[in-house]
Write a structure and sequence with these properties.
The structure is a single chain. By secondary structure, this protein is of the alpha+beta class. The chain has 2 domains: 2-85 and 152-227, 2-Layer Sandwich (Gyrase A, domain 2), CATH 3.30.1360; 103-149. Helices cover 43% and strands 13% of the residues. The protein has 9 helices and 4 strands; from the N terminus they run βααβαβαααβααα. Strands 1-2-4-3 form a 4-stranded antiparallel beta sheet. α1 packs across α2 and α7 (160-170) packs antiparallel against α8. The longest helix is centred in the middle third of the chain and has 23 residues, at 112-134. The chain is elongated and about 70 Å long. The relative contact order is 0.16. Bound molecules: flavin-adenine dinucleotide (FAD). The site of flavin-adenine dinucleotide has 9 residues, from α7. Residues 79-82, 162, 165, 169, 174-175 line the site of flavin-adenine dinucleotide.
Length: 229
């Protein structure tokens, strides 16, 4: 999986702090971005977290380029309705005949018998896909034979409030392993770009309290453990 932060709103923390200042201080809009010290922005953002005034986070967004995610995981990803997506089309793009284009879950990769069975099935599906294309069947129909594990590419944009929500759900140990890994990489990039804004982003076992009906039984100690997992 390859995850890149393609773009984000410039000066995201300064902008969130400016949005908060217009709520709490009598500052003209023309001066909102002037003279805002980094230290002041930090304490303001920390207050916003504490008070739950996180609509201010909606003013900044982050855009990621994602490669090598399975369609199984992308199906979960697109359930996040407040995000924007552009995903490679299987109607227009011919799928690679390379067996490596199908993501193998670690549990299958670690079991030689399961791995061979999986690879054999992928080879067969790819063979049928090619044969259907040669018969003149359109790609949009031939793709019905392809496995869910086929790798896909996406451009994804979320605002910082939605990112917090996404991280709280998908960085839970009980989230599916692939979307968990995606969330982990996205958070690492967000923390680089806006360390204060994402300083308290993560699963509920670290920031709040676990709400899972069936807890994993091994909550993360801290973000260091999660990010190095
Ligand atoms: C561990 C796990 C297991 C899951 N298992 C299943 C499953 O078995 N089957 C399944 O179908 N899905 C499953 N899901 C997906 C889940 O139900 C959500 O669709 C997905 O997590 C997106 O979350 P969301 O709706 O909170 O977030 P988003 O769509 O990102 O929305 C963010 C928030 O905005 C608000 N919001 C958005 N749209 C509306 C709306 N129309 N009305 C009111 N409020 C809104 C809500 O507060 C919501 O939390 C699972 C998710 C997780 C994390």
């Amino acid at each position: 999986m390859d995850v890149k932060l393609l773009a984000h709103t410039p000066n995201p923390e300064q902008l969130v702090a400016a949005a908060a200042r217009i709520c709490y201080k009598d500052v003209p809009a023309s001066q909102l971005l002037q003279g805002e010290e980094e230290k002041l922005s930090r304490s303001l953002i920390e207050d916003l977290f504490r008070s739950g005034h996180t609509s201010t986070f909606e003013h900044v967004s982050f855009t990621f380029g994602i490669d090598g995610l399975s369609r199984t995981a992308s199906h979960q990803l697109v359930r996040h309705r407040l995000a924007s997506f552009s995903q490679q089309s299987q109607r227009y793009v011919k799928m690679s005949p390379d067996p490596e284009a199908v993501i193998i879950p670690p549990a299958i990769a670690a079991n030689p018998q399961a791995r061979e069975l999986f690879r054999e099935s992928v080879r067969h599906a790819q063979e049928v896909y090619r044969a259907l294309a040669e018969m003149g069947i359109p790609k949009e129909d031939a793709r019905f034979i392809l496995p869910h594990g086929y790798s896909t590419r996406l451009v994804l944009t979320m605002n910082a409030r939605e990112l917090h929500h996404f991280f709280s759900l998908r960085l839970c140990r009980r989230a599916q392993w692939e979307i968990h890994e995606l969330a982990r990489r996205m958070l690492a990039l967000c923390r680089e770009a806006a360390p204060v804004l994402f300083g308290k982003a993560g699963p509920k076992c670290i920031f709040g309290a676990c709400e899972e009906a069936r807890s994993c039984g091994k909550p993360y100690r801290d973000m260091e453990e999660l990010l190095s997992d």
